[in-house]
Design brief:
By secondary structure, the chain is α/β, with parallel strands linked by helices. Helix content is about 40%, strand content about 10%. It has a domain of about 200 residues: P-loop containing nucleotide triphosphate hydrolases (Rossmann fold, 3-Layer(aba) Sandwich). It binds 3'-phosphate-adenosine-5'-phosphate sulfate.
Length: about 300
């Protein structure tokens, strides 16, 4: 059965919003619990590439860029399957009868690219033992928060976000899936020179996608012609991705992705937080942010 067929055969009645569960000190949506022990024992291969992000930091964008780079800019090859099959989400388990990220990874031929939102300390040890390459993408906390809020509103298997005010408070307290944004970005930053980690920023990708795509290609050891790079820039622009059925999430049925609420590829900009944060929220956020980030030299841009 096609992926679409499988999705359509989902039992609508079984679809419900997940609760958060605490595992190894970090909160996750319940489905992650199902394969957690296996994820911890996951055996990475030396040529596995991990794409790691905090949720809503630009994962899908980076996945599509990576797949195009690995396929020498051949956009037709990247139409072979939806992005979640080409680069599976390691720790996630879709609603039945869909498979888990681990099952999807097992079906891939090496070299494999794998998506994760895990904080650094919970990445399966074998990735470090095998000296795997990792691309980490971070996004400024304010836009990340806004994007996460809209995603939880529209994705009906995510925890209930509540009002923007309620989600705002949960986000800054780290009471959301995959835990604290602050801990996530800081710990990956602290580790970036101890492993083969390329640490990127969403804002840099928006500012100069060509420069960042070249960085990724170099990191992956791919020497691509300038025309190929330009093609990849073109295919991974927000507007092109929004109309690409292999990445835009429109294949996911409305009882999971309620597109009447929001789309998966929503705005794709830097600075949308200004349309959401009140003056008081911004002041509270800035004060809290300074405290949380005072032990790191990591710097973000909140506008371009
Ligand atoms: S997920 O569900 O965690 O994998 O989501 P993720 O892909 O990390 O993040 C989704 C946000 O990334 C934006 N996006 C893009 N921005 C710019 N250019 C391109 N090509 C692009 N593709 C995805 C997407 O729109 C989400 O951000 P918001 O701010 O909600 O629009």
């Amino acid at each position: 059965m096609s992926e679409e067929g499988v999705l359509k055969s989902c039992n609508v009645e079984s679809i419900r919003r997940a609760e958060l569960v605490l595992m190894d000190g970090v909160l996750f949506p319940e489905p992650v619990q199902k394969t957690w022990d296996q994820v911890k024992r996951f055996q990475a291969l030396p040529d596995d590439l991990l794409i790691a992000t905090y949720p809503k930091a630009g994962t899908t964008w980076t996945q599509e860029i990576v797949d195009l780079i690995l396929n020498d800019g051949d956009a037709d090859k990247c139409q072979r399957a939806p992005i979640y099959d080409r680069i599976p989400f390691m720790e996630y388990v879709e609603p039945p009868p869909l498979s888990s990220g681990l099952q999807q990874i097992a079906a891939l031929k090496p070299p494999r690219a794998i998506k994760t939102h895990l904080p650094f300390q919970l990445v399966p040890q074998s990735f470090w033992e095998q000296n795997c390459k990792v691309i980490y993408v971070a996004r400024n906390a304010k836009d990340n928060l806004v994007s996460y809020y809209h995603f939880e509103r529209m994705c009906l298997v995510e925890p209930e976000p509540g009002t923007f005010e309620e989600f705002f408070m949960k986000f800054i307290a780290g009471r959301v899936g995959w835990g604290s944004w602050y801990d996530h970005v800081k710990e990956w930053w602290a580790q970036k020179d101890k492993h083969r980690i390329l640490y990127l920023f969403y804002e840099d990708m928006k500012e100069d996608p060509e420069r960042e795509i070249k960085k990724i290609a170099r990191f992956l050891g791919k020497d691509l012609q300038p025309e190929t790079i330009s093609k990849i820039v073109h295919h991974t622009s927000f507007d092109k991705m929004k109309e690409n059925p292999m990445v835009n999430g429109l294949d996911i049925p409305d009882f999971i992705f309620d597109t009447s609420v929001s789309t998966f590829l929503r705005k794709g900009v830097v600075g949308d937080w200004k349309n959401h944060f009140s003056v008081a929220q911004n002041e509270l956020f800035n004060k809290h942010y300074l405290q949380k980030m005072s032990d790191s030299c990591l710097q973000f841009r909140f506008q371009l």
